[in-house]
Amino acid sequence: MLHSGHVAFLEEAASHGDLYVGIGSDRTIEGLKGRKTVYPEQERLYMIKALKVVKDAWINQGSGLLDFEAEVQKLNPNILFVNEDGDAPLKQSFCKNHGIKYIVSKRQPKSGLPSRSTTALRKDCLIPYRIDLAGGWLDQPFVSKLHPGPVITISIHPDYEFNDRSGMATSTRRKAIELWQTTLPEGDLVATAKLLFAWDNLPGNDYISGSQDALGIVLPGAARLWYHENQYWPEEIHQIDDNQTLDWLEARLMLLPLQPRSNNLKVLEDIQLSTESARALSVASQNLWDALLKKDALAFGKAMTTSFHAQRTMFPLMINDEIEQAIIQLPPTVLGYKVSGAGGGGYLVLFSEVRIPGTLGIRIRRK
Fold it and tell me: The whole model's pTM is what?
């Protein structure tokens, strides 16, 4: 959906030299976003090539975040120029390995024109996403039977079209879109979440999606969902909805983009469950909630990381080499981190009192 923000981005890129543009194929975008493109690739290519600042353009033949790899190696450019949404550690590493300067756009609109983004223009769906901050997997009875405990979630605005299979409850969100198209219905929030959970787990499914996905999408603010032994639905639900606490949390949370989780990855193929790890997960999750209530940044960050380490002990496939390298390269200002959702890719959720370059900010939904 070509708009003035794209043109300003390309004009900024062209200020560095001859501009060559690789665009994502329809296949790649559907794989990343879980939806078909509004304009097909040949139409998008025609529009980009028609811009006077563009020397040449093509459709990238690869897939994923590095779909441009073969074309870049053939062109051998001096610079790879990306926007803030497209910034990712994987691209930075690629450029470093190939001696290419890496520049992230300042994303300044043309003077006198409004700021534009594709997500804002689409406005076709206001269904939220969810982030689980701690305790994930305790909504599965095969884990909670070892030790009960809470899952902590937040519901966030769809300011970005987060990549599919990224641990942001994208599959459950698609089910919500099937039910309600563009916005959540008014009325009893817990009843709405129960309906979404049921629709997400119709009879015949091989795997039961955890109820934290449905509740995390529907309930505004931050939620503490307490799962008793062997239960699919939480026994207790507590929410934080005061703006002061949510503002504090929102200012310190950010997402570092990674490759989406591979379609072939089955996190449950290698699990190493133990009562000790389930207890550690439960305790860390409760500690995070307590730290949030006190707005204790150090304790919050420690609890987030501890919860994540308990998860990866039980589910080793949550981590791969790319995630490991991204964690190693995190600056010391990061107080806490975890992988979004079931891991294997998607995003690193970071907690820091200093904004980390290359990350996306989030907006927590309010009542």
Answer: 0.78
